[in-house]
Specification:
Rossmann fold; four-stranded parallel β-sheet; 15 helices; 12 strands
């Protein structure tokens, strides 16, 4: 998120100056004279303490994008980005260490922060449900797809991308995400396996994403399904092509703070099947097909319906592109600046 936000902030041309506290700078990101990298080469939790001390002396307001902990030590107003409440939802089966840290640090950060920036209405609702003190100081600032996803490879470039992953353009079901229980990939594999034989053979399921946790059941399910391929981590340039080349993008997640893959897929022109839960309807609008994520037959029926109808796929692709253009990093950057101004001034 931050890699997309920083150039968008730079493009706004605001009078603000930004000090970017980090362990190492991103030299490949061109930002301009209003941005200065401040290196704090310390491990956690010392990094947060040292950063809070320096920021309190050198800045007017602090935006914490990746941790609740920094806000603990700040003596200046802060805005804290809340990505999701996965750590507080047992069914989401978050990575255990990360969940313990979030559960231990979120409460005080919520109380100390001047503003709490949530990436969806769903996340804001969950935040207030778990932390009533957040009420009155939350704001919803949605994310956007990177421009590369609006212009995926086509023609021979697309052929090269799909060939690398052993599929043919327009003839595969794509799923993406870290291999973890919340992504609901076991049910997706079973739903794909329940498709009529001719659809299953002509549209293999390609799953892309890095290894995660609690993945043994998923690996067993994939090993027992010859039409399923696990591709591992995929660079964003290839991912854009895979989105644009798939027959359908399937994302039956059990819970999302925002659901950026759905937005990326729509931007690339993929027909999308996703869950009617948490934030996903906020992203998909009326441009996608919705399923009940805990019902394999619901997932299977949606996949079959989309795969059997070229006309429906074309219309979903059109609606998806239109929907994706409603989200932009320029808008995200403007809303972030507004919230930082509110935090600094104490305005609600």
């Amino acid at each position: 998120m931050v890699r997309e936000l920083l150039p968008a902030l730079a493009a706004l041309g605001t009078p603000h100056r930004f000090r970017l506290f980090c362990r190492s700078s991103w030299d490949e990101v061109e930002l301009g004279p209003s941005f200065e990298w401040v290196k704090v080469p310390l491990p956690d939790p010392l990094w947060h303490a040292a950063t809070a001390f320096r920021a309190s002396r050198e800045c007017d307001v602090f935006f914490s994008t990746n941790s609740y902990l920094t806000a603990w030590g700040l003596r200046i107003p802060s805005a804290v980005l809340v990505h999701d409440l996965i750590a507080f939802l047992p069914f989401a089966r978050a990575q255990s260490r990360a969940a313990r840290i979030e559960r231990a640090t979120a409460g005080l950060a919520v109380r100390r922060a001047a503003r709490l920036i949530c990436n969806s209405e769903s996340t804001a609702t969950d935040l207030i449900r778990f932390f009533p003190a957040a009420s009155g100081k939350t704001a919803v600032v949605p994310f956007a797809a990177h421009p590369r996803f609006h212009h995926p490879p086509t023609g021979t470039d697309l052929d090269e991308v799909t060939r690398r992953y052993g599929v043919d353009p327009g003839a595969y079901v794509l799923a993406s995400g870290t291999l973890e229980p919340r992504k609901n990939l076991v049910r997706l594999i079973r739903a794909h396996g329940g498709l009529p034989e001719e659809l299953r053979h002509t549209n293999p399921l390609l799953i892309v994403g890095p290894r995660g946790w609690e993945e043994k059941e998923l690996l067993r399910a994939a090993a027992g399904a010859p039409e399923v391929r696990l591709a591992g981590f995929v660079p964003d340039a290839d991912l854009a092509g895979l989105y644009g080349g798939c027959a359908v993008f399937a994302y039956p997640s059990l819970y999302e703070g925002f659901g950026l893959p759905v937005l990326e897929a729509m931007a690339a022109g993929a027909p999308v099947v996703t869950s009617r839960v948490s934030s996903l309807p906020e992203v998909g609008g009326d441009a996608v097909a919705y399923v009940s994520p805990e019902d394999e037959s619901s997932i299977e029926a949606a996949l079959e319906g989309v795969l059997r109808s070229p006309e429906e796929r074309a219309e979903m692709a059109r609606r998806g592109r239109v929907r994706a253009r409603e989200f932009s990093w320029e808008r995200t950057a403007r809303l972030v600046c507004d919230e930082l101004d509110r935090a600094r001034s104490g305005a609600e």
